[in-house]
Design goal:
7-stranded antiparallel sheet, 3-stranded antiparallel sheet, Protein Transport Mog1p, Chain A, DUF1795 domain-containing protein, 10 strands, 4 helices
């Protein structure tokens, strides 16, 4: 009986997790005059400039945002003013992890560190902020771009979190910078 319950639970979990990103195709999206490209799920739509200004209170020139139809998933790209190079990325990752952990003591850390994607160092932080009603999953990755720090952030609500870690890492692992 216990095996049947586990089996049924697994089937339900697979069905629910597939509903957010299951068979959604990915499409390459380019930014900064085609110098930066990522593969994004087709169910994420671009947030227009006026809405970006209102929602994120930021200059839209170096900031791009995408969301799903329920607003439960948001993906952003921001070119910051912070100087960065491949050589300084390990130090930046250490500082970013320290700052995030200090600012978000309730966060449950899943992973952090450096990886290589298409021959380029990429730093990342992955964590979950628990809350009985509004828990959020975050996956942030960053690298240097033309001497500045380029930050990618993927966040989703608790209800959309089932497959999000796979999607977020797929986006990172397909990053291309010319």
């Amino acid at each position: 009986m216990k095996d049947v319950s586990i089996y049924c639970y697994t089937i339900v979990l697979l069905l629910v997790s597939g509903s957010v990103f299951g068979q959604v195709p990915y499409t390459a999206q380019s930014f900064f005059n085609d110098s930066v490209a990522v593969m994004l799920p087709d169910n994420l739509v671009k947030i227009e400039h006026e809405a970006v200004k209102a929602t994120f209170s930021t200059d839209t020139k170096d900031f791009f945002a995408y969301k799903n139809d329920s607003d439960g998933i948001i993906f952003t790209i921001k070119k910051t003013d912070r100087e960065a190079t491949q050589a300084t990325l390990p130090e930046i990752e250490d500082r970013m992890a320290y700052d995030l952990k200090s600012q978000l003591p309730a966060a449950i850390w899943k992973s952090e560190g450096l990886t290589s994607v298409n021959g380029r160092k990429i730093a990342f932080n992955e964590f979950y902020i628990p809350d009985s009603n509004f828990g959020k999953y975050y996956f942030t990755f960053y690298t240097d771009f033309k001497g500045r720090l380029l930050v990618f952030s993927f966040e989703c609500s608790k209800k959309d979190a089932n497959q999000s870690h796979i999607v977020a890492k797929k986006i990172m692992n397909n990053l291309k910078i010319q």
